[in-house]
Amino acid sequence: MSLPTESTPITLRVLGVKLHAVSMDQAVERVLTMAHQPGFHLVVTLGTEMVMRAQHDEEFRELVNGADLVVADGAGLLWAARRCGLSLPERVAGIDLVCRLAETLAGSKGSFFLLGAAPGVAEEAARTLCKRFPGLQIVGAQDGFFREDGPVVQAIAASEARVLLTGLGSPRQERWMRQHQDRLGVGVGIGVGGSFDVLSGRKTRAPGWMIRLHLEWLFRLACEPSRLLRMMALPRFMGRVLGSRGQAVTLWSDQVSPGSPASP
User: Fold this and answer.
1) Which among 133, 142, 138 is positioned nearest to 99, based on CA atoms?
2) What is the largest CA-CA distance in the chain?
3) Which residues partner with 250 through β-bridges?
4) What is the pLDDT of residues 212-260, one digit of tens each?
5) How far apart are CA 17 and CA 22, in angstroms?
């Protein structure tokens, strides 16, 4: 049997949800490859909250499991893999993936379209990226407060962007891209959550030492106490992992019991 390569990464199953065991370098390479291939390719930046949603939202679980690339955005996923005797190379946070792609695409034929956040935020994020990465082509920006999809889809298609960065929040961003994938005209669509708020300077990201210690979630909670209810997904996720007897994270090829919520 051939060993996995960067083009065929190891695929894990986290409580029934697909996750690719890729490093940041591998993720960037895979996105750039897909961007120049025919058709639309969906990239999901997976967090523990999304995994827990997938336990009761079958449609969302199938959407994630059908994505072309699913990266580990949440530190809890790395912990869960270790707890179950497996490993992930590193965390691939959505905002870091955006910056690495911008750095790589600067001066090339690749281009971004930014969709999401409050009015003006995507434009500010675009200016920040272009200033930080001279030569980067950002061919359009649109806030997430639109009532009709049609004009937005048309604008994205007309821009001829190769990569669509969608910050509408999960699960809206993944569902929106999948719904319109055949008309967007982009090679890759990536759900990036609240990345534009940070890139624009509207919100502050955790200090580097907190990110390295996997405490970014604590910083976000301190800055936004209203996130407490959403953050409760993390202890519920940890409870599921601890109670799984090492079976919460398995290789994608491993069998799961029929009828289980963990079935793809």
Assistant:
1) 133
2) 52
3) 13
4) 767 676 667 677 777 666 778 889 999 999 999 999 999 998 544 433 4
5) 15
pLDDT per position as a tens digit, 55-106: 999 999 999 999 999 999 989 999 999 999 999 999 999 999 999 999 999 9
Q: Which residues pair with 17 in a beta bridge?
A: 14
Q: What is the pLDDT of residue 4?
A: 45
Contact call for residues 116 and 144 (beta carbons, < 8 A) = yes
Mean pLDDT for the stretch of residues 112-135: 97
pLDDT for 259: 37
Q: Beta partners for 12?
A: 19, 251
Could you tell me if 115 and 154 are in contact, meaning their C-beta atoms sit under 8 angstroms apart?
no
Residues 168, 191: Cα–Cα separation, whole Å: 8
Q: Across all residues in the chain, what is the average pLDDT?
A: 89
- 249-251 sheet: strands from edge to edge: 17-20, 11-14, 249-251
**Residue 19's pLDDT is what?**
98
Does the pLDDT value for residue 176 go beyond 50? yes
Rounded to whole angstroms, how far apart are CA atoms 225 and 228?
Answer: 6
DSSP state letters, the chain: -PPPBTTB--EEEETTEEEE---HHHHHHHHHHHHTSSS-EEEEEE-HHHHHHHTT-HHHHHHHHT-SEEEE-SHHHHHHHHHTT---S----HHHHHHHHHHHHTTSS-EEEEEESSTTHHHHHHHHHHHHSTT-EEEEEE-S--S-HHHHHHHHHHHT-SEEEEES-TTHHHHHHHHHHHHH--SEEEE-TTHHHHHTTSS-PPPHHHHHTT-HHHHHHHH-GGGHHHHTHHHHHHHHHHTTTT-SEEETTS---TT-TT--
pLDDT at 258: 35
